[in-house]
Amino acid sequence: MHELTTTRHNELVDPLLHIWGWEIPVYLFIGGLVAGIMIISGYFTLKHQFKKNVFSSFYLPHISLILLSLGMFSLFLDLEHKLYVWRLYTTFKVASPMSWGAWILVLVYPALWLNTLIRIPDRFKGIIPIFDRLSTRINEHPFLIKNIGVLNMLLGTLLGMYTGVLLSSIGARPLWNSAMLWMLFLVSGLSSAAAFVHLIAKDKYERQLLAKADNAFLTLEIFVIGGFISGLLTSTSVHIEAARLLLDGPFAAAFWVFVIALGIVIPLFLQLLAVNEKVRHTPIPPLLVLSGGLILRFVIVYAGQYSHYMHQVFGR
Predict the structure, then answer these.
(1) CA distance linking residue 224 with residue 69, whole number of Å
(2) Contacts 24+ apart (CB under 8 A), 69-76
(3) 0.70 exceeded by the pTM?
């Protein structure tokens, strides 16, 4: 009986046995990145920055469509019954986060597509005449441009929140069972998006602006992570055990070194120096932020699967 119990315990807690692969963390990261880009590009659209050739809002919607398709492909690879994915769109269940996510993604694509039509790059004009006509019609009505910007910001926010709600709705995993998880993923997505735009921006003013924005998002992310951990530590014993997976458990090294130090603190310090013109802007800080955002998803997903209420039954 003892051997049976021990075997069952090992099956439940061994992170190498019952675990998602790389597809879900990558999907969550890309989803958060696209969500942040939608919010940023939507804001730039409201500010009419798409009129400038060098400003990233001119081409961010095009990049977002490619990134989102890569993220969806990553999610598709993880599905066990790939041929039945269409069934998600035959119904809508209010209480199902997966159902919400599926339909939000359906709305995200046309919102991004409309944003690309505000200004079509010269090299692509004339390829699809109907797109040119739609672009002309949109620009004849400034209120349409404003509404497209607002729509992208709204759907970007919902998409960023959804990536966290998807995990927090799984109550059987104590680490994920937190009301702060959606906020953490949203803020992390905004930070990653600001870092991405900072990385690719050609305009000096925009690069400076996004570095300042990223500093604000990174600072906020520190407080959100603090709230996330504090919430777990002040909850039940099983939630405290889940928090310790990150604080001093098997995932502590990845969490403290790659997420906190290299993903937040060091790039924040470097970018503070850069925006105050103490050092030059370099690709290093935004690359660190992007890497930290990706590793955060891997740590949360893997540690969340390691945490389990059955630990309370069988002990450690």
Answers:
(1) 29
(2) 70/30, 71/26, 71/27, 71/29, 71/30, 71/31, 71/34, 72/27, 72/105, 74/23, 74/24, 74/26, 74/27, 74/30, 75/23, 75/24, 75/27
(3) yes
Asked if 84 and 77 touch (Cβ cutoff 8 Å), the reply is: no
Determine contact, residues 107/89, Cβ cutoff 8 Å: no
Which tokens sit at 235?
């909850």
What is the DSSP track for 111-135? HHHHHHHTS--GGGTTTSHHHHHHH
In whole angstroms, what is the distance from residue 203 CA to residue 219 CA? 24
Q: Rounded CA gap, 248 and 189, in Å? A: 26
- C-beta neighbour count of 305 within 10 angstroms: 19
Tens-digit pLDDT profile for residues 190-238: 999 999 999 998 888 888 999 999 999 999 999 999 999 999 999 889 9
Cβ distance 178 to 240 under 8 Å? no
Q: Would you give the distance in Å from CA 25 to the centre of its chain?
A: 10
Sign of CA dihedral 284, 201, 130, 123: negative
Q: Which domains, from first to last, does the chain contain?
A: 2-314 (1.20.1630.10)
At residue 53, the pLDDT reads 64
Tokens 């991405």 correspond to 196
Burial 30-44 (b: 16+ CB within 10 A, else e): bbbbbbbbbbbbbbb
- CA distances in angstroms from 118 to 133, 140, 148, 152, 237, listed in the order given: 11, 10, 9, 13, 53
Q: Tokens 């607002």 belong to which residue?
A: 150
Residues 6+ apart with CB under 8 A from 190: 35, 36, 39, 40, 160, 217
Question: Which amino acid, residue 114?
Answer: L
Among the residue ranges 30-39, 92-101, 139-148, 240-249, the one predicted with the least confidence is 92-101
